[in-house]
Each structure stands twice: as structure tokens, then as C-alpha cells.
Amino acid sequence: MEAVREAWTDERLDDLTVRMDRGFDRVDTDIRDLVTRMDHGFERVDSDIRELADRTDRGFERVDSDIRELADRTDRGFERVDTEFRELGDRTNRGFERVDTEFRELRGAMNARFNAVDARFDAMHRTMIIGQRATIICLVGVIGSILATRL
User: Fold this and answer.
1) Largest CA-CA distance found in the chain, in angstroms, rounded
2) Cα–Cα distance for residue pair 4/12, rounded to 1 Å
3) pLDDT digit string, tens, across residues 38-88
4) How crowded is residue 109: how many other Cβ atoms within 10 Å of its Cβ?
């Protein structure tokens, strides 16, 4: 079979040109629509990103505020604990001073009683020495009398 060739006439070339121009016009319109839709999409994405960034910034500001508040509360708590420890230390020191005073008073009372006991022992010792002397003198007298009567 023989290939059928059609002749290219000016009219047919003009029709082809018109069809190609319409096709390129349609492609240009589609591309412009696509670019416009993409621009709107990017604007929405940019807006969403700005909104997200703003929300994130507000969230961080709230967290920073919460952290500052927590730090202040913690500082106040430690100040209260420090005050309580100082008061406890003062009370403990006063208690030790009272115990030290009582021990000094007790030591003084014990020393006074020991001195009294020592004085009693000294008096008893003197009495025993006097009693021993008297006993020895009596024995010497008895022995002397016995000897004098026998001689």
C-alpha cells in the first residue's frame, strides 16, 4: 500500500498554526493558573508557619514565665527552710547552753558535797586518831597497873 500524502496548503498550515496557538495559549493559561495556585499555597504555608512560630513563641514565653515563677517559689521555699534551720540552730544552741549551765551547777553541787564528805572523813579520821591514842594510853595504864601490882 502506498502511503497517502496530503498536501500542505496555506489554509491547512493556518489551521495548524491556530490550533498550536490555542494549545500554547491553553498551556500558558494552565501554567499561570498553576503558578497562581502555587503562590496561594505558599502564602498559606507561609501564614501557617508564621502562626505556628507565633504560637511557639507564646508557648515559650509561657514556659519561661512558669520557670521564673517556679524559681521564685523555690527561692522563697529555700529562704523559709534556711530561716527554720537558723531558728532550729538557735534553739539547739540555747538548749546546749542550758545543759552546760546545768552541768556546771551540778558539778558545783557535787564538788560541795564531796568537800562535805571529805570534811566528815577528816573529822572521823581525827576522832579515830584521838580514840587510838586514848586506847593506847589506857592500855599503857592498864599494863602499867598490872605490872605495878605484880611487882
Assistant:
1) 201
2) 16
3) 999 999 999 999 999 999 999 999 999 999 999 999 999 999 999 999 999
4) 10
Compute the distance between CA of residue 34 and CA of residue 61 in angstroms, rounded to an integer.
40
Q: How far, rounded to the nearest angstrom, does the alpha carbon of residue 93 sit from its chain's CA centroid? A: 26
Per-residue pLDDT tens over the stretch 99-126: 999 999 999 999 999 999 999 999 999 9
- Give DSSP secondary structure letters for 35-78: HHHHHHHHHHHHHHHHHHHHHHHHHHHHHHHHHHHHHHHHHHHH
Q: Report d(CA 53, CA 34) in Å as an integer.
A: 28
Residue type, 66: D
DSSP string, 123-136: HHHHHHHHHHHHHH
C-alpha dihedral, 50 to 52 to 54 to 56, nearest 10°? -150
How many Cα atoms are found within 13 Å in the side-chain-facing hemisphere of 7? 3
pTM: predicted TM-score of the whole model, two decimal places = 0.44
